[in-house]
Amino acid sequence: MKIHEYQAKDILARYGVPVQPGKVAQTPDEAETIARELGEPVVIKAQVYVGGRGKAGGIQFGDTPEEARDAAARVLGMGIKGLIVEKVLVTPKVDIKEEYYLGITLDRKTQAPVVMVSVAGGIDIEEVAEKTPEKIIKQPIDMRWGLRTFEALDILTRAGFPSYVLRQSAAILVSLAKAFIESDASLTEINPLAYTADGKVLAADGKIVIDDNGLFRQKEYATWAEPEEANPLEYEAKKEGLTYVKLDGNVGIIGNGAGLVMTTLDMVARSGGKPANFLDIGGGAKAEVMYKSLTFVARDPQVKGILVNIFGGITRGEEVAKGVIMAQKELPAGLPIVVRLSGTGAEEGRALLKDAGLDWGTNMRDASEKIVAAIAQTEKGQ
Ligand code: GDP
Ligand code: MN
Fold first, then answer.
1. What residue owns the CA closest to ligand 1's atom 15?
2. pLDDT for residue 82 is more than 90
């Protein structure tokens, strides 16, 4: 379960990590009032469940309460990676001299939490991880005793943290590890860990992901869940009775049966594409379900083409074809759709598709390759 920055900072503060005070606003008026109470220049920070807010314009400054109000007006309602900003954190602006990175995540290989630290913190940490991974120092935590101060000092020294931030950073890292373990987190991160002009070290940003399987004992944090904010499409899908999981690619995928849909995801990946979602229409679906599924998948702005893979049985090919044809009229013009039908009613279904001018694949591989090629073609055209 994801939580917001202000909630992550609330948890971190309980473990002794220095953070700026701050309050959440839902309107520009509220932001102005908070800024006036704080009585100093502020940062207005979008509270959405994605990173990279700075680059997206979701972090803005206001030197006066009036400017804070304007900044909040710009950030509230803004869309960041498909999420709409409903709340902003209003917090005193700090004079940052240097930015470091501290993170803890679960490492599947060692089956232990692993600490990651870097002196190259800030908004480009992903690029650092990709291009100069040697700048990120990693060290597993022994769950028998957690992270101890001498280990934290050692890791930070190896990462090149300067002496003037070493002690404070080590104390923060130890606290971060304690928070990670005690809150059943799968990720805790401070980026940037800021070194300020007045010589303080503090968490200027905080991110915590709580393991869903730990929520039964993390009762307070469980009440912070905002499923609608965390994943609006999955939330809508559930309301509409669709078995849908959002993924990160651009190939929309619909099939019948969880096994077949997963195989389709693999096949698309093997064909060089990236699945945008998992959607299982289940058994015996009629044209309406197909129609609803297609229009739903197309709502994801990342989707650039859709692959429908149906193994006919109690689900009939003609019904699938009818549903696709119905949906096609409402989908964005030029959005490629490839259908693969086999089994009951496949012949009849393909005849309907042909009449409607729709493309199909002779088998799953052929259909995967076709949709990936069609998307590449449209992207080239743009
Ligand atoms: P993210 O982009 O979602 O990770 O949001 P952050 O909270 O990490 O903010 C992004 C960047 O904005 C930081 O790396 C800082 O450079 C800058 N920033 C955020 N808060 C402050 C602040 O209080 N003072 C200054 N000077 N810069 C800030
Ligand atoms: Mn950050």
1. 122
2. no
